[in-house]
Write a structure and sequence with these properties.
The chain is mainly alpha-helical. It is 44% helix and 6% strand. A two-stranded antiparallel sheet has the order 1-2. The radius of gyration is 37 Å and the shape is rod-shaped. It starts with 14 loop residues before the first strand and ends in a 9-residue tail after the last helix.
């Protein structure tokens, strides 16, 4: 029997040879299966179908305590990490990884490199936002009733006030603090109308303020 030309295999290939009717054929012999064994055999487990499960990463800035999310950190730890990010490299866990190894090597060096951590900076408003803030605050506490109504309507409907919301809240809080002492009821009413308009804005979340 001649080998099959053009076919190579590292192990023995169980080809069978058959001929008849002037034809020659090499084939793999199939294993005979007993239907009784197949019918009586235990069925394999059905594979789990692919599925997608959604979960909340954060709700109104608060991370839910669910197994899918990492464990929450304490407020003191978050403040410490934001002020001094390099402090993590000094912990015992960090010394067990590659960063800790590099840090330990640096401590052995004669020259000490000082790392200056940039402090958090407040986000500045654009020129247009500063102008809007000036016009809104002046109109809300001014004497022009028509202009005040337009300003309050803008606070209640404008969807782009997220960046100015902290400053608006500070303006209202400071205005209340000063005018309560001076018993200026008119300004206090105007400020409360500003609060009412901000509460009516569906795109703003005031729970944090």
């Amino acid at each position: 029997q001649e080998p099959l030309y053009g076919f190579q295999a590292g192990e023995h290939v169980p080809f069978r040879f058959a001929s008849g009717g002037g034809r020659e054929l090499h084939f793999l012999e199939d294993k005979e299966l007993d239907l009784t064994e197949l019918v009586s055999a235990q069925l394999p487990k059905i594979p789990v179908s692919a599925s997608i499960r959604a979960h909340w990463l954060a709700i109104d800035g608060v991370q839910p305590a669910i197994p899918e999310n990492p464990p929450p950190q304490s407020k003191d730890q978050l403040v410490a990490d934001s002020v001094d990010p390099a402090a993590k490299l000094k912990s015992g866990d960090a010394r067990d990884n590659k960063l800790g190894t590099v840090l330990g090597t640096l401590h052995k060096m004669k020259t000490v490199e000082t790392v200056n951590v940039k402090q958090l900076a407040s986000h500045e408003l654009s020129v247009e936002q500063q102008l809007y803030y000036k016009e809104i605050t002046e109109a809300c506490v001014g004497s022009d009733e028509a202009r005040r109504a337009e300003a309050l309507q803008s606070l209640a409907c404008d969807p782009g006030l997220h960046q100015m919301l902290p400053r608006l809240c500070t303006f209202i809080a400071e205005g209340v603090r000063v005018n309560v002492v001076q018993h200026n009821l008119a300004i206090l009413i105007y400020l409360m109308r500003m609060v009412k308009s901000l509460l009516e804005n569906q795109t703003l979340y005031l729970e944090k303020y």
